[in-house]
Design goal:
single chain; 348 residues; alpha/beta; Rossmann fold; 2 domains; six-stranded parallel beta sheet; 15 helices; 12 strands; glycosyltransferase activity; Glyco_trans_1; Glycosyltransferase involved in cell wall biosynthesis; transferase
Length: 348
């Protein structure tokens, strides 16, 4: 079997991580997986994006694949239309954004293609995301399938001191880590605004994006520019070592469909303060006690208080280990890969 995976861009992030894991898992079972990037560079002008989309549609129409897997909305629409016309037996798409955060024309086209049978499987990676489509037509919702992310638990190999030295981070003092693209969704502004109330703490952000200059200017305005470190994009293989360097993980997104970085931090038992979103309460649920605090993503005072409390009184190691084991068991990578093999009707 030959499968074409389509991503919008090659930006480092949760979607790329998911596609890599699925591609590797399928390949281990004899599936020939080819991954294509639709937009060769981020933030392309609209006319260049249109050309790229037409080029990708032509590639799909040329055939030669048994299945196509799309990871973002525009790619999903192409797979559901061009893939259907080309006779692809399996047209699998992912809902990696909630409908209200998708451009209206793209949202309308996705709804149309899904309602008319363009997708053979329409994947939601959390119950929350699946429930975001309750107002869609029944014919659309029949194609929705819940496949929660599967992850390999991060395994840091360095001590805190070694990890800080490797990334050029302060050897002493408390370190707050955020992993995410520098975009409005990830809401790093609230962390910068909270930093003046956390003396001696340094905020480290691993990720890049169009809001870098604004975040730097905000840090300057709040007088914390010396305690903000923007690492830029960090290879996924290096993120576990960043977890080892940190005292607290902070994840203030205003919306998510899963929250991959927050789950990875939980898997290593890193004390965390995360946005109080239904989806994060779902995916991080491990019982009544966990080394996690939830904060309204827009409430700066709540972030000041929660981060301060977590830095001053970190959860005991036993609690952290138990919560890490629970999250790791919940999101086994093999379970996710098996679900995709079933969709593709590949024996395993």
């Amino acid at each position: 079997m030959k499968v074409l995976q389509i991503l919008h861009t090659d930006e480092i992030g949760g979607i790329q991580t998911l596609a890599n894991m699925i591609g590797q898992g399928l390949a281990q079972h004899g599936v020939d997986v080819e991954t294509a990037i639709m937009f060769p560079r981020p933030f392309m002008p609209a006319k260049d994006k249109l050309r790229a989309a037409i080029s990708m549609a032509r590639r799909i129409m040329r055939g030669g694949y048994d299945a196509a897997i799309a990871y973002q909305a525009t790619a999903s629409i192409l797979v559901g239309t061009a893939g259907r016309l080309a006779g692809y037996k399996h047209r699998i798409v992912h809902q990696t954004a909630v409908p209200r955060e998708t451009a209206p024309i793209v949202r309308w086209l996705d709804r149309l293609v899904g309602t008319t049978g363009g997708y053979t499987a329409n994947i939601a990676n959390s119950v929350f995301t699946q429930n975001e489509f309750t107002q869609y037509p029944m014919t659309y919702r029949r194609g929705l399938k819940l496949i929660e992310h599967g992850l390999d638990a991060p395994r840091p190999s360095l001590t805190m001191a070694q990890a800080r030295q490797r990334f050029g981070l302060p050897a002493t003092g408390k370190l707050i880590l955020n992993v995410g693209r520098l975009v409005d969704q990830k809401n790093q502004d609230v962390l910068v605004k909270a930093l003046p109330a956390l003396p001696g703490a340094t905020l480290v952000i691993a990720g890049d994006g169009p809001r870098r200059a604004q975040i730097e200017a905000l840090a300057q305005a709040f007088g914390v520019q010396e305690r903000l470190i923007l690492l830029g994009n960090v290879a996924p293989a290096d993120v576990p070592e960043l977890f080892a360097a940190a005292d607290v993980f902070a994840f203030p997104s205003v919306w998510e469909t899963f929250g991959l970085a927050a789950v990875e931090a939980a898997m290593v038992g890193l004390p965390s303060v995360v946005a109080d979103l239904d989806v994060l309460r779902e995916v991080l649920a491990t019982g009544e006690i966990a080394p996690i605090r939830f904060a309204n993503p827009h409430d700066v005072k709540r972030w000041k208080d929660s981060l301060g409390q977590m830095l001053r009184n970190p959860p005991p190691p036993a609690m952290r280990r138990e919560a890490a084991r629970a999250v790791t068991a919940k999101y086994a990578r093999e379970r996710m890969v098996d679900s995709y093999l079933d969709l593709l009707q590949v024996a395993h």
